[in-house]
Specification:
Elements (H helix, E strand, L loop, with lengths): L5 E6 L13 E3 L12 E6 L2 E7 L14 H10 L2 E12 L9 E2 L3 E4 L27 H14 L8 E4 L8 H9 L4 E3 L2 H10 L3 E11 L8 H27 L5
Parallel strand pairs: 1-4, 1-5, 5-10, 7-8, 8-9
Antiparallel strand pairs: 2-3, 3-4, 5-9, 6-10
This protein binds hypoxanthine.
Amino acid sequence: MSRKYLFAIIGGTGNTQLADFSPDRKEWIETPWGRPSAPVMMGDLYSVPIAFLPRHGLEHKLAPHLINYRANLWALDAVGVSQVLALAAVGGISREMIPGRLLIPDQLIDYTHGRSETYCEPDSETIPHIDFTDPFDSPLRRQVIQTAERIGLPVVSCGTYAVTQGPRLETAAEILRLERDGCDVVGMTVMPEAALARELGMAYACCALVSNWAAGKNDAPILRDINRNMDEAKAQLTLLLRAGLPSWISEYS
Ligand code: HPA
């Protein structure tokens, strides 16, 4: 059995390119599920070998509901990835999810529909009833949070991510409903990504970048806020990755 060891970062809105990362290899991986969003980019980030995949494509043209999540995760698996940190821009719902902050969510609620959310097909030999009680990998989450604490970054260490279908943003009433459901932030991409990663046996955690207050939470135009606040969240992400990445790697066999 081949050894799986590679750490992957999936880039989201605002992170189509990763600061300080210049890949030395780009590989288009053909998968049984079609083409991934982009070639898998491989190289060193802070002296750690990583794979990087921007889920919206190289030019950020793939809307959340059109992303081939199955191909993306399959391609990462094919190059030997065992751990994934998924970056995702989100809107803040609960009070501490202030734009510019980072959140390492511990739960999610999936409101998406019509996405291919499993590798299980009619001819599959087994049914992957994955345990999804904790949808994000606890050891990887813990390591990321410990790094943030060590360097004094105000990262929010738990919260529930509502995954909406998009590509439109939500109505104010929809956000109130998500709040009543117990959601802290809203975004469009961690499902089915997290479930597919679990089916493939990868450790998957999310670093959510809060870019705006969700619809109806304040009067600022959401789209203007998304652009304004991303830079602050990205600067914190860079500090987090630089300080932590070397210690997050684990070896799977
Ligand atoms: N809603 C959904 N997805 C998002 C948002 C939002 O407010 N901000 C960034 N991604």
